[in-house]
Design goal:
21% strand; alpha/beta; eight-stranded mixed sheet; binds 2-acetamido-2-deoxy-beta-D-glucopyranose
């Protein structure tokens, strides 16, 4: 018994000791219920510091929670007979069937695998809808990684522009979801271009705020919350810092944050000031993080602090960034801006997940490669030259970045570029060397991966959200557009799929950075032989037979154009082609070509009328003439020429702001560096009618029309520029898009009979009969219309089954010329012509006329009459063709010109 009791006391003592240790270790067991609750809450807060959303196991997904928002259970769908183009850009050669149910891709099998539809019908008990793709390509929905959709709604109005928060130059506390306008019609339009998910970011400030990823389908409920890709019916409206959802924030470097606050004395005006402001915020975030960690240490030691969990609403997201719970997306262009940001990231120990815009990133691949994380470059394929930050950009940058194993994503920055044309960015990147698979991945799988959402979007795989696009042709082909689309298994586009042939594979690239030969810059050869000409669009060089022709030019004159030209005794330059095409040189109507080289820097040439304050337009002597300001041989002109644009028409340059009378345009050859290149000094008087033409003395459209009328009537007999327009001696080029304003203008023209042409014309389809009857031509500018402004809100978009303004006007019998949306598009004129032609379904002949001779005729410009043309290798309306030779006045002046001659500011 004694023994026993001894053992027992040892046991009891042990038990008491163990209990004591436990008690000391977890003294909260003694806490009152109320304290216990507080402790639990504190503990949860502290644990949330480390929480991250878990990755979905796609194979195990049975249900897409987003399907609940569509109010009904979607019918299951079977897409039959589709080639699959996956988010890694790989295209199958076999046809496949995709079964979709509960908003997910449930299975993918080779077509003819079994009578799947029947099997599925019996096993799932859903109504099954069968979609026959007839051999067309099915791909995942496109993923846009940089959009302002919903916070910069269309048409742009003061009432709906919410993308710039100007209360302070750093606004880490703003959240896109607080402003997202579910009524933005661009949501539907983006979807019509194949975009199914978009990261919507706030703009411009050095630390700009929080962005969100939305699906591009508006639920019947009109709930913004339900448009979030991470919408969860079980936990709606959860706090973003609950650790359950991915979070994204936006920052910006360089010109954008620098320029916004010029009028605020306390705001930074230099990159140094921006750097300081950034550090100030990050210092605060570091301190807050430390305070939180201190607080949580106390909680871990069972003390319940009397204070609340340290929280500061304005820098909450920066602490999330420091804890790795928020991905950062930084708008930065120049190499030194990127490096500054990376220096900050090292100083404060956070990762820069994606560099956006980043046009110069291709110049510093080694710096980017050396980072210990996989940085994404979310860039553009097309932008160049409009501001200093963009002046070093290269068409080959996506190719170069990819060649260095950097993750390239392409974006539109909607509405900077129309979001529904995202696929065009991939087309152009591919056309300039980005391999075909990477080009398609850069708008699907790669952005999905960069957003940490590649466990549910960006791929066409089992268990993924059923966001599917069926294309009319390979999406990298010019003019490709979706025919059918599903988002979360719901149909959002349902056009007929016709029988017939279409391009099932990608086109070849126009250039790769390696394929460019040496540019023999200043040739002046009078005698040359061009072999392998398969077609000619020149009326003076008509091809009389199907076979390949040769063209022999001797002393600047055509001496032979036939299947075989006699060999001459002389040494002549020989150009051998496989599918040579002769076209007239392209004529571009530009905004600044030949006047300023960097439009946002008026010092780089003639200047900017925006800066002009004196004079009244009523005084005819205040009207400016572009020919007085020509600055030839510029970088823009060299690139224009090398892409086949040999003729340029430019009015005096006005960047933005209001100017009713812009001035008189000049027409010149892009090849020359002196005034001998001028084709016509005074081409047309350019005026702007509509909202863009309003100015203090002309605040309304009615005052603009009245002013135009009185200028024409009062000056009719005077020897000045207005008198010349009134008498029909000088054309009036009216920049106008609105149908209502065109009606006013056409009435005035009917009354006063002047020589009118329209530039823009995005609503011209609504007045096409009058245009035809009054013989008024239209130079279409901005055919990829996105209804950005009120004055163009009824334009045709060319997607979702809608035709383009080009095809509409041509079939109505209007004389149409093509202008380029922005000056930077002129160096890609062939790409623009190819996609406009294919999207409009017009013939190559019509397309070439529209881009060359029609523009010359519309402006009444006689060419010099001598032999001038451009020779392409390949078709002018397909990607993959390139300029082989440029002939001016009989002389061969360029052979295989480079699209981008070496950049040299001092040249
Ligand atoms: C105290 O509790 C923690 C976790 O709550 C545990 O890891 C640790 O081992 C415990 N210490 C003792 C001495 O029991
Ligand atoms: C949708 O399907 C689920 C599961 O099959 C079912 O519980 C629910 O009632 C259905 N909802 C509707 C609106 O039919
Ligand atoms: C399918 O639904 C019908 C009612 O709509 C029901 O009669 C039938 O039993 C169901 N079949 C299966 C396989 O669940
Ligand atoms: C970087 O991330 C992208 C997107 O997730 C992925 O496609 C790529 O393979 C990654 N690269 C490396 C080197 O990890």
């Amino acid at each position: 018994m004694k023994k026993q009791s001894g053992a027992f006391s040892v046991f009891v003592a042990g038990l008491v000791a163990a209990l004591l240790i436990q008690l000391v270790n977890q003294s909260h067991v003694f806490l009152s219920t109320e304290k216990q609750t507080r402790w639990n809450a504190a503990k949860a807060k502290c644990e949330a510091r480390y929480s991250r959303p878990s990755r979905l196991v796609t194979d195990e997904r049975v249900y897409n929670p987003r399907t609940s928002i569509y109010g009904k259970n979607a019918t299951s769908k079977l897409i039959k007979n589709a080639l699959l183009l996956d988010g890694d850009g790989k295209l199958t050669s076999d046809l496949h069937d995709i079964f979709i149910t509960n908003g997910l891709i449930k299975s993918i099998h080779k077509s003819g695998y079994s009578d799947q539809a029947q099997t599925l019908r019996t096993t799932t008990n859903h109504t099954l809808e069968v979609i026959d793709a007839k051999g067309h390509i099915a791909s995942p929905g496109l993923v846009e990684m940089h959009s302002h959709i919903g916070i910069c709604s269309q048409p742009e109005l003061k009432g709906t522009n919410d993308m710039f928060e100007l209360m302070s130059p750093a606004t880490p506390f703003t959240r896109v979801i607080d402003a997202f306008n579910i009524g933005d019609p661009a949501i539907k339009l983006n979807a019509m271009g194949g975009v199914t998910s978009s990261l919507v970011l706030p703009s411009a400030n050095i630390i700009s705020g929080e962005g969100y990823v939305f699906k591009m389908a508006v639920p019947e409920s009109r709930s913004v919350e339900q448009m979030l890709i991470q919408y969860d019916p079980e936990h709606p409206f959860q706090s973003p810092n609950a650790g359950k959802r991915h979070r994204w924030m936006k920052m910006a470097c360089g010109e954008n944050p620098k320029k916004r606050f010029m009028n605020r004395p306390e705001a930074p005006k230099s990159r140094m000031g921006l750097g300081y402001l950034f550090r100030e915020y990050m210092d605060r975030a570091i301190r807050l993080k430390e305070e939180q960690d201190e607080w949580c240490k106390a909680v871990e030691q069972m003390n319940i602090p009397d204070t609340q969990f340290p929280h500061e609403v304005d820098i909450e997201i920066l602490v999330g960034l420091l804890r790795g719970q928020v991905s950062s997306n930084a708008h930065c262009y120049e190499t030194f801006d990127i490096e500054t940001l990376l220096r900050h990231s090292k100083e404060y120990n956070f990762e820069v997940d994606a560099l956006h815009h980043a046009l110069d990133a291709y110049l510093i691949p080694d710096i980017l490669k050396s980072l210990p994380w996989n940085i994404t470059i979310a860039t553009f394929a097309t932008l160049w030259g409009f501001k200093k930050e963009a002046y070093q950009a290269s068409l080959f940058s996506p190719e170069i970045l990819n060649a260095h194993d950097l993750n390239v994503v392409l974006t539109t920055d909607h509405p900077a570029l129309p979001g529904h044309t995202l696929v065009y960015q991939a087309q152009i990147a591919h056309n300039y060397g980005l391999p075909e698979d990477v080009a398609f991945a850069s708008i699907t799988g790669k952005p999905a991966g960069a957003l940490n959402l590649d466990d549910r979007i960006g791929y066409l795989r089992v268990g993924y959200d059923a966001d599917v696009v069926i294309w009319d042709k390979h999406p990298l082909q010019a003019g490709a557009t979706p025919l059918k689309m599903l988002i979360d298994g719901e149909k959002v586009l349902d056009l007929a799929i016709e029988d017939g042939t279409f391009e099932q594979s990608a086109p070849k690239s126009r250039y790769t950075s390696k394929s460019i030969g040496a540019d023999e810059e200043h040739l002046n050869e009078k005698s040359y032989l061009i072999k392998g000409i398969s077609s000619s669009f020149l009326t003076t060089l008509e091809k009389s037979a199907e076979s390949l022709f040769e063209l022999l030019v001797e002393d600047g004159e055509v001496s032979c154009f036939s299947p075989s030209c006699p060999t001459t005794n002389r040494e002549v330059i020989v150009i051998e082609l496989e599918q040579g095409t002769i076209i007239p040189g392209i004529t571009a109507v530009s905004e600044a070509h030949g006047l300023v080289d960097i439009p946002s820097e008026p010092s780089t040439g003639d200047g900017d009328i925006r800066e002009y304050a004196g004079g009244s337009f009523r005084d005819s002597s205040s009207v400016m003439f572009a020919h007085n300001g020509l600055h030839l041989g510029s970088e823009h002109l060299v690139r224009a020429l090398n892409s086949g644009v040999t003729r340029i028409i430019t009015p005096p340059f006005r960047s933005e702001g209001q100017k009713f009378i812009t001035g008189v345009s000049v027409a010149f050859k892009s090849s020359s560096s002196d005034l001998s290149s001028v084709l016509k000094d005074e081409v047309a008087l350019h005026i702007t009618l509509g909202d863009a033409g309003k100015e203090p003395s002309l605040p309304t459209i009615s005052s603009q029309i009245a002013a135009l009328k009185s200028l024409l009537i009062e000056n009719k007999d005077l020897d000045n520029v207005y008198g010349r327009v009134a008498r029909g001696e000088l054309a009036l080029a009216a920049h106008v898009n609105s149908k209502d304003i065109m009606i006013q203008l056409l009435r005035l023209q009917n009354e006063l009979t002047f020589n009118l042409l329209i530039i823009g014309g995005l609503e011209a389809h609504l007045v096409s009969q009058t245009l035809v009857s009054q013989n008024v031509p239209v130079i279409v500018k901005g055919w990829r219309c996105q209804r950005k402004y009120w004055d163009e809100r009824r334009c045709l978009t060319g997607v979702g089954g809608e035709e383009t303004i080009i095809s509409n006007l041509i079939s109505a019998g209007v004389k149409v010329g093509l202008a380029y949306t922005e000056d930077l598009d002129i160096r890609m004129a062939l790409d623009q012509i190819a996609s406009a032609t294919k999207a409009s379904g017009i013939s190559a002949k019509k397309a070439i006329e529209m881009a060359s001779t029609n523009v010359m005729e519309i402006f009444g410009i006689e060419d010099s009459g001598k032999l001038s043309f451009v020779v392409l290798e390949g078709s002018p309306v397909e990607y993959g063709s390139r300029v082989a030779a440029i002939i001016e006045d009989g002389s061969l002046i360029r052979k295989s010109p480079q699209p981008e001659p070496a950049y040299d500011l001092y040249h």
